[in-house]
Amino acid sequence: MTEGKLPVFQPPDTIAALPPRPFEFSPAAARQAGELLVQPPAALFRRLLADQESEAVHLASRRIIGAFLGEPGTGCPQAGLSGIVDWVAGARSELAAAAGALRQCEPDVLDAVRRQRAVLGLLGGCWLDVLSQPATQPSVLVNKLFAQHFKLRGEGNQKRSLHQLRRLALEAGGIYLPDLAASDFLDAAGARPLTALHGCFYLALSRLPASFLPELAGVHYAVLALGIDDLLLGLPPMMTETELRETLAAHLELAGPAERARLATGVGCAVALEREHVAMLAELAQWRRLQPLESKVAGVIARHAPYAGRHHKNIKVGGRPLAEIFTDPDLDLARFLTEFRESGHVRPAPDGLSRFVRAIKFGGPMFGIFDAREAAIFTEWVATIAAGHRPEIEIVTSTAGDQAAAAWSAAIQASHPADIVLRELGTVGDRELFWRLVNIESFANTRPLARARAETLFAQAEVLFDCGAAGRYTDATYFEYSAEALYQRAEQVYWEKLIKPYQPLTEIPDRDEVVFLQTTYALGALIDATWIHRSANLGRCDRRCDAALFAIYADEMGYGDLRKNHITLIHAALHSMDIKLPHIREEAFCGQDDLPEELYGFSLHQLCMALFPDTYYNEILGYNLAIEMFGLGELRLHEIQKLNHYGFDDCYEQAHLTIDNISAGHSRQAADIIVAYLDEVGRALGPAAVEREWRRVWRGYASLAYFVEHALLKQLAEQDAGDDSLSLLI
């Protein structure tokens, strides 16, 4: 490439924000997003958490972000580091006092407050989940944030993560909540609409983090520096103020005026939301404190009534069967409680216990229906009735935060950012497709094409199930799964195909050929580990294999240390060969001609599968094993020999030769991850499910072989030239 023709990228990557671009969506996605955004806050929250793949959710996220961020710089000074730090510190002092008062509440009130806040506390840091991606690596700022993300995620050990430490603190206080992704999580937390909507903002930001890097940096600093969740739970902060301030300072140093304004907007938004939520918690606590006992009883009955009616066919209250009362869509709880407290079910027996209290105690027919807190409410209520109290029954429901929630819901539905463009994707070449996939946040209308392409390739790769043993570097022949068989296959491929054939080169190709080959390899290296960068994020990190996947990705990114980041290493190697390319996120990358378009298939497959970490979880596990092993042995050793011959930098090759090792490195870890996953499947669903899941895992492995075994595929194509299933995508 002639220097000066195109912009040239060379680390360090000092971006403070990605180049602004419109967000392209299909018209169908616009309709679906519109339908989604009119759902109740709880339903919207659940969809955003559960769906990280659809175009509609990404469009909904853009509209949610537009509603919450508002005008640039709102509330937060743009006076530089000290101004922002001092302003947030002032807010922290104010909110710490409010949180301290909440911690002094009586136990049942504090329980309600902590449950409510748990929805946001367990989301903490989700906005960093996929900030590290091909479009943002190897950015100085992204790596600083990734180092903090790695720490918040327990440095690869989920049991040490911020999420888990907060859950343990909740459980120490008697609050046991379902998994965040469970359908009943919000119900168990008693989530108010405002809480769900705040959560929707953080989830939306986690879907488009690269596009809103300055705002994200501001949100990240403000939320962690304020530390509301730690204050309420009595936990020490996982990230110190010094660590947070250093990253904030780095961003401000690299940012221009526009980026600083956007960062201030993020800080201001997060502080405003935390003030709003703490105020709502105080309102909730006050309501809970003043809530009449009868209203508490009504709340318990309302939670259980939908499941209770059919179990009380022969029991009547006020002359009506309970089965009829509890299935009545117009259930009048005040009337029911008035009649119930005068019934024989509540009237004390000679031993002082009513039939109802005896029924909910150990040995009674209703024991275990109510938890300890609910049983205590009933017991207290029955005791007041026995003491002669007959207050007018008033059912008081909480409206904490509802006014603010209504305003946010209206703002979301009215949010139509000008940068949203509705456009059907036409035909694109591989080079442009690569660029669009790298910048997928701006081109969500490319997602359907990516899904179809990934599915086609996985299906085509199964052709190697019958003949994969003839491969030069892989063996994709299908076999019946067992942990022992998988480890044996990996060892066999390593020793027989990667190590045994190795002999040092006796003749080194000429310099231009070495440089050209390295250029083609670099296309894949520049998106190193992209196939797993969206796996194991929020709501998907409870399995052993998830934490292990994240640890592999973190290692590839140098754990946030820019010097050890593999994208930095490949750029260093390229520059030693005087290969000058634009950054892959730049539109100019589409215009470079050093890489023939037919070479993009290998990288496109990785980018396509990466967008669907839930749909193609199994295939990603198999592909991960294949690609981690592929660079071991002969191929990489020959490359190192060629690079050394001409004095080129071999740091990228050397790094992978060591960390991917079959004994304890990424190759072994990749096999262990598959075994751990299928072990959980087997224990939960049985052997038949293991076989189904395994076949998909192995076609993921085969999809790597489909790209590297050129000679074998050519031979198969020649044997059956008329079989369209063997048409190559490489």
How is the main sheet built?
2 strands, parallel
The best one-word shape is globular
Q: Which secondary-structure class do the elements indicate? A: mainly alpha
Strand order of the largest sheet: 1-4
β-strand amount: under 5%
| Termini Cα gap | 24 Å
SS field, number of helical segments:
33
> Helicity, in percent?
55-70%
Assembly annotation:
single chain
Kindly give the count of domains. Answer: 3
The average pLDDT score comes to: 92
Radius of gyration: 30 Å
Got a strand count? 4
Task: Give the uncertain stretches in residue-range form.
Answer: 725-730
Structure description:
By secondary structure, the protein is mainly alpha-helical. It folds into three domains: 275 residues, Heme Oxygenase, Chain A; 94 residues, no CATH class; 297 residues, no CATH class. It is built from 33 helices and four strands. The strands form two sheets. Strands 1-4 form a two-stranded parallel sheet. α5 packs antiparallel against α7, α5 packs parallel to α9 and α20 runs parallel beside α27. The longest helix is centred in the middle third of the chain and has 34 residues. The C terminus is likely disordered.
